[in-house]
What does this fold into?
Amino acid sequence: MKKIISLTLGLVLALGALSMVGAYADGDDLLAEIQDKGVLTIAMEGTWAPWTYHDEDDELVGFDVEVGQYIAEYLGVEAEFVEGEWDGLFAGMDSKRYDLVINGVDVTDERSEKYDFSDPYAFIRTALVVREDNEDIQGFEDLDGKVTSNSIGSTYMELAEQYGATCEGVDSLGETMQMVESGRADATLNAEVSVLDYLNQQPDAKLKIVAYTEEANLVAIPMRKGDETASLREAINEAIAAMREDGTLSELSEKYFGSDITGAENAGE
It folds into this structure.
């Protein structure tokens, strides 16, 4: 995979990482452990384009893959990616098998009670998708009594259930869309950018977007709560700020989404 930062920037990040070792490594904390072993273990699905997916050469690529690589380099370590189903990513982080989950994770009140989040690095609306011949569902209020398909435990599943839908659990975006197209589900909810990417890749899909949420969700990086992750969270926030400042975050967004979803203006602020 091509490096996303120049050699000059790499040297700057390396110097920044060395300064952080002195600033953060004193004491028993996760950042110190990560820098000591030289590896940042990041969990993601690997099946949710264009966030995390496999290209035609079966290489793991995507917006969040490159975000994770940048953060790891900023910390002065290597990125190790571990793929798994959505509902297992957080369990793996809870059991300390993974350091972080970077997978387009929405910040919610429920998740914030259990996890600490980095500063947001993207802002996305939720799209409501139905089969192109479906006239019964025109908005989110029409989901009452309907069947949707989404990853178990996802923000989209929770939102559908809030509107009275019953959700069928799936493992990938493609499977979600296929269930709607085949009529096994009435609708699905997903990130606007992921839906648009899918429809661009599958122009013959008999699907349509009928509604969007008015406000965008905040996308950030969750990590275990507590003093153990305090210095890691601060360092990750510094890395996100550096990505904004040097233009990398916007460039990656344009590369994978065809638009810049990394500015707060996308949240309607």
